[in-house]
Amino acid sequence: MTIIVKKEKEKFENIEKTNFDLENKLQDLIKKDQIMKNIKLGPDQDITLLTLAREFSTTAGRIDVIAIDTMGRFYIIETKLKKNPDRREILAQIIDYAGALWNEFRDFNKFEEKLINNSSFNAKSLLDFIENSDFETESEIEIDKMIETMKHNFENGVFRFITVWDKLEPKLINAINYLNEKANLTVYAVTFDYYRDSGIEILIPSVYGHESEKYSKISAKTKGNRFSWTFEQTEENFRNNFTSFEYSKFEKLYEFLNQKSDNMRKGNGRDGSIGPVFNKLCRDSLPRSFLTLYGNGVMKINYPWLKPEIRKEIAESFSTNSKLKIDSKSNLISDIDLSYTQVPYSRDQWSQNIDSIIETIKKFI
Q: What is the pLDDT of residues 305-322, one digit of tens each?
């Protein structure tokens, strides 16, 4: 391909394709997050990726890049260019990486711990990392749901694969299309044409594999786990998922929150969720929900989004109730770092102690 360009007040000129230094340039740009963003990976929409780790070590070797999208889906990205003599081995290698990653870190908390200790991660938690990134999420409920989906995908070994090549042979394209359509995997291959002239650099991506994804048993749309809930639909879903006792307590809580909150938000996750915003309690630049109640029965107190000076006081108030001084994972609230951890309560914990929860909220609003 030849590109014809024209600078202002100058003649049109040809820019010829070159492969000079392409390999090192691509590897560098991928690791610095300057490409692989907003490339049209899916058949219907662009997908923005956020890098979690670079050169992530596993028992099968180092993964070039581990990334996620706004749906909480994991991507293993490998740059495999001309230095690799047998390119077919690359497809086996990325599956080896996935197997090693899943086997070594079946407990998602261990994976998150290693991320935090990774020098390129630069955050105290996934919540902190995503919250301070440039991801375009609709609300804190969406971030919370994204992390929940990430955990589900990781613990079930659901990964997507992106391989970056300088050149693809027809037999490799056939193999990638087969894996997408028949093996219930999502594998993308990306090539780049590179042009350079007078200080101008142009990278033109071509993506292979996404056409087959249209016909995969699990499409991009069904994997997204996103729904357009109304408040009425959310309440109906809660009614169907909760016991009559739980739903009666939810109604009491919802009536109180709806009257007292400055804003009531709803999430678009698979189970639906609600989240009240009390401006008085929020960090000035972050009007986010005091708590989130999900249709699957989990309630989370969102301490990171509250003013730092009141987090401990609110936690201590909750903890005066012996049933609420520990979270659903049996962690003492007093031992939790509230600056970056949301505290989950089980459906039994919140439904059987709803009066105590309401009284604590009343104290601070």
A: 899 999 999 999 999 999
Least confident of 64-73, 148-157, 194-203: 194-203
Domain boundary assignment for the chain: 2-223, 231-364
Q: Ramachandran region of residue 294, left (φ > 0), alpha (ψ -120 to 50) or beta? A: beta
d(CA 28, CA 182): 33
Quote the CA–CA distance of 8 and 189 in Å, as a whole number: 36
- The type of residue at 12 is F
Span 263-297, pLDDT tens digits = 998 877 777 889 999 999 987 766 788 999 998 89
Residue pair 146/71 in contact by the 8 Å Cβ criterion:
yes
Q: What is the Cα Rg of the chain in Å?
A: 24
pTM: 0.59
Bridge partners of 263, per DSSP, are 277
Three-class SS of 288-328: CECEEEECCCCEEECHHHECHHHHHHHHHHHHCCCCCCECC
**Region of 228 on the Ramachandran plot (φ > 0 left; ψ -120 to 50 alpha; else beta):** beta
Q: Where are the alpha helices (DSSP H) in the chain?
A: 22-31, 88-104, 108-117, 126-131, 140-155, 170-182, 210-213, 220-223, 231-241, 244-260, 308-319, 347-351, 354-364
342 or 32: which leads in pLDDT: 342
342: DSSP letter: P
